[in-house]
Amino acid sequence: PAGAVNVYIHRTGERVHGATLEEAIKVGRELEKLDYYWYEHPMPEYRVESYVRLCRELTIPILSPEITAGGVFTRAEWILRGAGDMSRIDVVRGGVTGARKTAIVCEAYGLRCEMHMAGWGNLQVCGATPEDTSEYYEKGLLAPGVDYDAPHPCLRNTCDAIDPDGYVHLPPGPGMGYEIQWDYIDDNLVDPVKGN
């Protein structure tokens, strides 16, 4: 439906950028055999040429860069160099405007641009980007005992609860859509002089 992002599950590989080029190729070939959807930043991202070579060696899409600084400018350079088959961005690396610009650059080059991590700003960027460019919303790195659908104490709502049909809906309110619990804020003010 309009104003919603569907949640799908595909097998993706993420090595957490510790491999050498040779190791990344070896693992990537195994992921290809297993029909993984993408291979996410398997090597340190400051070695761009290694990614160019990795993309040439493998058929599985390489999703990178993910955490490299520089926002849209770094991602544009990676696209032009052929260092990634897909890109990744979040509002931490350029804000809402920078993340949206990155998605537009990827769209112009016919590449997917997946949002990195969950959150109010990332959900808005994902909702403003065509699904053939930004196909997935990364709900979060789940951990036992953490209720990801509970709002933060300073908020009345959460940004990305999954409905029974597997959709995450964009908040309907103004701006990012969050509603502040002003009583909580007032009860937890810190005196900037006293520090309490």
Please identify the structural class as seen in this structure: alpha/beta
Radius of gyration: 19 Å
Largest sheet report:
3 strands, parallel
Number of E-type strands:
7
Q: Give average pLDDT, whole number.
A: 88
Low-confidence segments: none
Largest beta sheet: what is the strand line-up? Answer: 2-3-4
Specify the number of helices: 6
Helix content: 25-40%
Q: Give the terminus-to-terminus CA distance.
A: 47 Å
SSE pattern? EEHEHEHEHEHEH
| Oligomeric grouping of the chains | single chain
Question: Care to describe what's here?
Answer:
The chain has 196 residues and is α/β, with parallel strands linked by helices. The protein is 32% helix and 10% strand. The protein has 6 helices and 7 strands. Helix 4 links the parallel strand 5 and strand 6. Helix 3 runs parallel beside helix 4 and helix 4 runs parallel beside helix 5.
